[in-house]
Amino acid sequence: MAGRLLILGAGGHGRAVADIAAECGWLVVGFLERAGAPARSDVVGNDAEAAALIRSGTADAVIVGVGSTALGRRAQLFDQLKSADVRIAKLVHPRASVSRGCRIGSGVVVSAGCVLGPGAEIADNVVIYSNTVAEHDCRIGEHCYLSPGVLLSGAVILEPGAFLGSGAVVLPGVTVGKGAVVAAGAVVTSDVPAGQTVMGIPARAKAGR
Length: 209
Hints:
Elements: E1 3-8, H1 12-23, E2 26-33, E3 43-46, H2 50-55, E4 61-64, H3 71-84, E5 91-92, E6 97-98, E7 103-104, E8 109-110, E9 115-116, E10 121-122, E11 127-128, E12 133-134, E13 139-140, E14 145-146, E15 151-152, E16 157-158, E17 163-164, E18 169-170, E19 175-176, E20 181-182, E21 187-188, E22 197-199, E23 204-205
Parallel strand pairs: 1-2, 1-4, 2-3, 5-8, 6-9, 7-10, 8-11, 9-12, 10-13, 11-14, 12-15, 13-16, 14-17, 15-18, 16-19, 17-20, 18-21, 20-22
Antiparallel strand pairs: 22-23
């Protein structure tokens, strides 16, 4: 048993995180939600209470379980946990393939079927959903969110807070800028500026931006 885990966020992504945690040997003792959220039997407090609950012995560690619809809040919650100096878990599904030369930060969630190649670097609080591939020497910045089936060819750089939709492909050596959005199914062949949304094959800036 890895220990007792609290999950910040009780929505769909939080439940997916709970499943991965169980596969990794954690005992999920409950979810934390925003103050005023609808009552649920598995919600044991609000997200401001995470550090206190750990220090009280209720849990051994915590992880952010807020999904893609609230990326800013994901980053904020993680930074709050880091400032509180509590143990932040990282979850790598046992059916993921992770090279021994891959480095993974705290708060990272890696789902089943993912492949992380040699030299890949995954910064803190990154979500890597099912069947995503990050080949050799990819660098994924903090708070990035990779939806199911993303393919990062070798030496791709994702700057902090980038979001990649399901099935997006990024070709070798390409950089996706800070806070940029790559739409589902897009094929990125050249660098994406910070904050830009791209879509299509090859990926181009969204009209009106």
